[in-house]
Amino acid sequence: MRSAEWTTNAECGVRNAEFKGKVVPRHDAHPYTPHSALRIPHWRYSMKIDLSEKVALVTGGSRGIGYSIARSLAGASAKVAVVARDGAKANAAATSLGDGAGRGYSCNVSDAGQVETAVAAVEKDFGQIDILVNNAGTTRDNLLFRISEEDWSTVLDTNLKGAFLMTKHAARGMIKRRWGRIINITSVVGIAGNKGQANYTASKAGLIGLTKSVSKELASRNVLVNAVAPGFIDTELTQTITPEARESFIRAIPLGRLGRGLDVASAVLFLTSEYASYITGQVLVVDGGMVL
Ligand SMILES: NC(=O)c1ccc[n+]([C@@H]2O[C@H](COP(=O)([O-])OP(=O)(O)OC[C@H]3O[C@@H](n4cnc5c(N)ncnc54)[C@H](OP(=O)(O)O)[C@@H]3O)[C@@H](O)[C@H]2O)c1
After folding, report:
1. Is 22 found in the same domain as 105?
2. Which of 63, 65, 291 has most ligand 1 atoms within 8 Å of its beta carbon, as the pocket-test mutant?
3. Looking at the domain assignment, is residue 222 inside a domain?
4. Does residue 266 line the site of ligand 1, with CB under 6 A?
5. Which structural domain range is residue 237 located in?
């Protein structure tokens, strides 16, 4: 049997010369053992992420970035509840995860009653929710003076209120079990601003504030709350732009290409894992270097 001791150079496989070879005691023997301490034995240098005991809920998981996230989580053996307004598409996406890994739920995240019902249904079907990814989002782009009150409310209610409602209902179980991961999908424009997107950028900047405040509230219960800020990702949401605009975006991205759903999903997967157990309240930008 392998040694149960943990080495400091187990930290994400980085062999730090300063720490190399030093051994720290097992966590349970350590005088101070924070509940969120890294729980990865030193032989696991390969960063294998195993979520086989976990249940994830991904809003907007029926297509685009959310679907990539659902696939990545299922690929790490999590059970995944796929939430979208269109229940048939949510079911189809969940079924495609294979092997009973997923289940679809119809829910408009901006409706408090529907969110409560959906969270209760997922908890009944899977027993618990360990990971919440607030990914559902929408746009109603226009210049400030042309944004209607309705378009303002639709965007804020979906992107920001939806995350608030989902978090409020899904976090209760996490708090009780003293383990949870909440990841909010914001956007680089929530950090940098963007012409023609006052409603969208306000919602995404608001999500960053929500992430930071809730991370402080839930940290003592080992519920970690972070945000991922994608740049320009090739999905249905971004299909409407002209080829010229697309080219100019690519020129503005140091890595020279648009992002893929998988680029965002990989960041989310990392944040759900034990490798991220000392990270909370952060915004991880995934944009190929576009906004520095
Ligand atoms: N694509 C990008 O370049 C980019 C960049 C930065 C950030 N983001 C963010 O990443 C997230 C996903 O974007 P995406 O490009 O993958 O979008 P997308 O392809 O348009 O997919 C949006 C998903 O959200 C669901 N949804 C929309 N409104 C909903 C509501 N009220 N309740 C429940 N589900 C709802 C949709 O399903 P239904 O229509 O069936 O409800 C769909 O599954 C969004 O939050 C977006 O703001 C995207």
Report:
1. no
2. 65
3. yes
4. no
5. 51-286
